[in-house]
Amino acid sequence: MYKYVIRRILIFIPMLFFLTVIVFILAKSAPGDPFSTMLDPNVDQQVFEERREALGLNDSLPVQYVRWISSVIQGDFGQSLVYNGREVSELINDRFMNTIYLGLVALFFTLIVAIPIGIYSAKNPYSPLDYFATGFGFLGLAIPNFFFGLIAIYVFAIHLGWFPAQGTVSNPNISGFQEFLDRIHHMILPGITLGLAGTATYMRYMRSEVLDVLGSDYVRTAKAKGMTDRNVLYKHTLRNALIPIITLMGFEFGVLVSGAVITEQVFNYPGLGTLFIDSTINRDYPVVMALCLIFGAFILVGNLLADIFYSVVDPRIRYD
Amino acid sequence: MTNDTVLEVKNLKTYFFLDDNKVAKAVDGVDFSVRRGETVALVGESGSGKSITSLSIMQLINRPGRIVDGAVHFNGKNLLDMSDKQMASIRGNDIAMIFQEPMTALNPVFTIGNQIIEVLRKHKKMTKKQARKRAIELLKMVGFPRAEETVDEYPHQLSGGMRQRAMIAIAISCEPKLLIADEPTTALDVTIQSQILDLMMEMKEKFNMSLVLITHDLGVVAEYADRVMVMYGGQIVETSDKRTLFKHPKHPYTNGLLESLPSVDKEEERLGMIKGIVPPAHNFPKGCRFSSRCPKVMKKCFESNPELEEIEFEHSVRCYLYTDTDKEANHDSSQTKERSKS
């Protein structure tokens, strides 16, 4: 098993390398350079050339890449072109955990809703709750994030006043447990919005997987051994039904971070998503590059974690 | 029911209620009994209701199937009257089952040991340590040379034959009184088949179990069974001891099965066969269920289904050829010819 994990991590490294190359090439192939927006166009072309030369923008692409990647490895993503030249790493640091928390809340919501309902639907197919869950599932998949978010704000924040409509904390002076509760309170609406599509997907997956496994030969064997319904469901069925769910969660891990772009915008939530949109609109290339790299890395890490979890759950993957 | 009887199935009916209001009568009035230490073979083609009979005894019938009538007496108690909990304490403990597909019958994500230990812990209330020790003993008993290692291995690390041995170890773990083996060797290589069957017989002797052996392989029946029941269309059409059945088969279906068995002694160029296929269980012919394929069909056979009647000591058959007194008068030769042409 350790061999498998180590091999899987070794594969992860070249993938990360290709990701940086792609991000770099994409950023380089975007039209213009920092000076096209930073400097007054009336400045002499000669000055432009001198600055380009001094910043190394006239070097060959591989040379520029190596220079960029060696500073990225040291955690230096350069300076933002917009936010008064602040360090990109500092900008990201400020918001990084906000996005992670939001992603975790969304994932938590997704799992505690989707898995029990999925199991129930499989145990009682074509029951009223199963039909309701199916209906909810299609609705959840069909409603776009931003639309659901707006409705949620309208109903729960404006009309009912149960949850705040935006931000992360209502009062910057509170701290400790109170602050924690306040942050959770702020994350519920965006968390549900972000997790909605995932909930629907997981629910459907869970239902069909459990239904599938319940009809399998080894579940029949377990019943023939005199195992109780509980044991058959929670031991023999669930472990097998969760295997495809793990794949899904691997993808979800990346999507929760990068997919928060729209949800964060709707709730004006200061995470990486809002930063991404702002910096794209402002052509803040260093920030965009750093974020693309982070989003991409998250998807890779998600897949890595999924593969490792796989090998924990399914012994067939450990040995090959 | 004598003291000697372990299992007695009476008028068992298991129907499947299909979507379009069709009812598939997969098992339709089956009666039989199994004595202590006896091996009873249940023979028939695919779709004849053998497996559903065995699953009905275990009450492992899934929707849309349902046991609609009958009784299954085991040690004098009707299993069909029992609660789910009582039934669960009998499954795996007093009655154990071995299935056809060793490749899929074991749970892929748990070790062999785990799957034996959970049975012992459930029924014998053993501690983890005791159960593990017993699991290793059982694995040795069914022929795993490296049982101490196998106990921690996963099903995918074993071959088909070895998995079936592991299944046998699970089945005998609680020393059941009755073992039901549903085509236990169908999915295995021919060379492995006899090893597995020999092992089952050995365990049967060792623990003084009764065995219900479901198979479509008459060769297996000839070698291992004491008594044989031939099933067709969800009903038993002939039952007798093995010797009588092979020497003096009565039912045309049994005859057909025996003729389609290759034999080194036979001189014929071609093997015999039974024309047509088993009719679907939701659409049996009105009269005798074998009438659409029977070479000796009579007019009466299309009108009503004969009863299973004992014609000699412990030899029963469901056919008008033997139970009907005025069979000659009814014989309709033109219809027979027509059938055999089509």
Question: Can you tell me about this structure?
Answer:
- The complex is a heterodimer of chains A (320) and B (342).
- With 320 residues, chain A is mainly alpha-helical.
- Helices cover 78% and strands 0% of the residues of chain A.
- In chain A, helix 1 runs antiparallel to helix 13, helix 8 packs across helix 10 and helix 11 packs across helix 12.
- The longest helix of chain A is centred in the middle third of the chain and has 39 residues.
- Chain A starts with a helix and ends with a helix.
- The relative contact order of chain A is 0.14.
- The mean pLDDT of chain A is 84.
- Chain B folds into two domains: 198 residues, Rossmann fold (3-Layer(aba) Sandwich), CATH 3.40.50.300; 69 residues, no CATH class.
- In chain B, 35% of the residues lie in helices and 23% in strands.
- Chain B is an alpha/beta fold.
- The C terminus of chain B is likely disordered.
- Chains A and B meet through helix 9 and helix 10 of A and helix 2 and helix 4 of B.
